[in-house]
Amino acid sequence: MSASRSVAETVWKEIESTGSVTDEDLSILHFLFGKNFERATRIVDQRGVKRVSGQPSGRSIFQVVGESLRKEEYFCFPENFCACYSFFYDIVNRGEQLCCKHQLAARLAASLGTCIEVKVSDEELALLLSSL
Question: In this prediction, what percent of the chain has a pLDDT beyond 90?
């Protein structure tokens, strides 16, 4: 794990444990993620993060609204994957970012408990995942 990822993980755990974000947390996350973090905070402020949970398993994936005029929604796992173009271009191909704004928005909303919770059957969740 890179030093940047380790620092970010420490901050996320702090936010999760307190349920709030300090100015210092915001400053560190902004330093690590730059404009992607600014964009992620806008998405969270606009209630653009859903956690889709399968029942009865409790497995989940996040659905995050993009910032384009079309308001496309992207499925993502905050630590590992996003279905957006930026994830594949900036993170996978070029290695220029640690994660995309959708992953950051999902992680921030989950840490603060501000996700819109959507319950579906495990079968419905499996169908969603098979479309990725």
Answer: 69
